[in-house]
Amino acid sequence: MNNKTLSIVIPVYNEEKSLPTVLPEVTSFVAANNYHLILVNDGSKDQSFTIMSAFCKDMPYCTIVNHKVNRGYGGAIKSGVLAAETDFVITIDADGQHYLEDVTKLFSHLLDTDADMVVGSRKGQKEASAFRGVGKSIIRSVAKVLMPINIYDINSGMKIYNTGLGKLYIKLCPDSMAYSDIIALVFISQRHRVLETPIGIKARTAGESTIGARTAFETIMEILNVVILFNPMRVFLPIAILATLTGVLWDLQFLFTGRGLSIGASMLIIAGVIFFSIGLITEQLSQIRKRQIL
Known about the structure:
The protein is α/β, with parallel strands linked by helices. 53% of the residues lie in helices and 13% in strands. The chain folds into 2 domains: 6-230, Alpha-Beta Complex (Spore Coat Polysaccharide Biosynthesis Protein SpsA, Chain A), CATH 3.90.550; 233-293. It is built from 10 helices and 7 strands. A 7-stranded mixed β-sheet has the order 3-2-1-4-6-5-7, sandwiched between helices. α5 packs parallel to α8 (213-230). The mean pLDDT is 87.
């Protein structure tokens, strides 16, 4: 018999148009399945907080966390995870794009496989725009180059994971939209069991997505930060090897023709040694920082 508990965390920012449609379905679903609902009002400037308060009034399974100022998508999820008192948490969006039956599907898959995190994969589904599809492809490619991962949709907004681990690792995650990617990469880098299973996606109930080129750039930078924290040599070692080999090959033609050493080639070799040394130093600093954080 399954006696594990689950909280559904929904970050909300200026969703007054979608909430009247989304919340009735969500609150009924939560009550029917004995889940807990955590709504995080992330400094909304519209009537989102008022609408949430009305729906959750006198509902013991619903908690509202209110931010006076906007902290960002990741910041809202962090507050929701910290407020959770259940065994597991799952994050979904407030725009009505997620099917609630997928919540139960991911929960069952996590319990059946004894996973620490299950990602709801949107692989094979049509992107909202070609631009977003390209951006996600770039993010996935960068992540796979820097870190060995077997998850396709690392930036999916629907993820279920162990609450205790989530509370431990959220301090390593940004407050921005990059949270979705980074929390998955942190779990993977710490050798936790991370799986994914297909989910469906609906059109937004209302409003427009705010994800753009800036979001993609911020996500790539956050991925670099995580890799440098957990495995800095994966960044610095390839650069050191490339610079050193390029310098050596460049210098060989000068040596074979009796023209001595090339200044440019020597600089590349020195740069390679410097990058390798920086990698070693960063490795030591990384170990110290991880012991302080984790």
